[in-house]
Write the structure tokens for this entry.
Amino acid sequence: MAIPVIMPKQGQSVETCIITKWYIKKGDPVAKGDILLSYETDKAAFDLEAQADGILLDIFFPEGSEVPVLTNIAVIGSAGEETAEFSPGNAEKNIESPSPILSPEDQKHSTASVETHLHEAQPQSRIKISPRAKKLATEKKLDYSSVKGSGPNGRIIFRDIESALIHGPVSHAITSSENEFTDRPLSNVRKLIAGAMHSSLQNSAQLTHHLSADARRIMEARVRIKESLSNNTSSHDITINDMICFCVIRALKKHPEANSHFLDDRIRIFNSVNLGVAVDTDRGLMVPVVKNADSMDIEKLSGELKRIAAACRKGNINPELLQSTSASFTVSNLGNYGVEMFTPVINLPQTAILGICTITYRPADLGNNVMGLVPFIGLSLTYDHRAIDGGPATLFLRDIKLEIEKFSYESVES
């Protein structure tokens, strides 16, 4: 029995999604759990898995299409089954003439496409634009006649209007050789990151303090944990990042002013630590949150950090967990990339973010007038000076350092 593949609704505010890539072609076999396609909302990127075994009988929307949520986008079934009843049909208004939904291959050779044709000043001129894009352009009073569409067949979609509002319309005229460069449209995730970073730096007073912590104890703990894993005496693969996050949570409980949101006329201090952790994915940077992280022991915290990171990379993270307002404090770790010092950018309205840097060896006093090389891990704390003064911020960073330097895995085991 044929069943439709439906564009999911990711979050209450999401009305449409953009199909970025089909992984299964029309006519190919598919098994339950196979990734059919990737798609983007205006908040994040996701993968959609097949919910049944069978053959991908039909695909109603090609890559690049902006599709309303809860719309049939494909059909899975047995060979020979009909798919017409599942076709979304002429879902958009103002189509010049009725036409059936064609396969992506047939669409290339057909002049009848499911588009919104709008008549402008010249009666013979028609502009292909999605309803959502048209609505935004109308609200912002933007003349989209010169906007270059990045959707199927040059259709103007929502992200094109967004880009035009920021950078101005892009002319169709080419003034230089096409071989000199390649224009790649920004993904929704990239635009989201760009907008958030620009807004953060533009609308807050950010300052960064750098400090290093003696990493011998956490490195020794990591060696013991790896030995326990190899000896099958433990199944908890607790990383150095997990340990530092645990230490950060302890320090936040001593400095609640850093576990807060700055809301212009007030500061919201949270009773629990909702820890955001930056995760690098193929789709871009995502910052999911572990709610009530301060109620967890290190083993549970480690498991939650791994779970949300895997969900981001797989593309099935809950969008609500990606909102900057969901976290009360964020940690960003670039140590694995060898970065010795950097300036992390705050996820507003949060008041601070900690950057974790790589471990480097430096000369230090080992006692009894003996000098030696000691591993130090770099810590970079960026804070919003509107909410936190330099003194309290320094004391908070110092307590993170002290928590790291006195860390003992045995002492925090449940």
User: Anything to note?
Assistant: The domain at 117-176 is CATH 4.10.320.10 (Dihydrolipoamide Transferase).
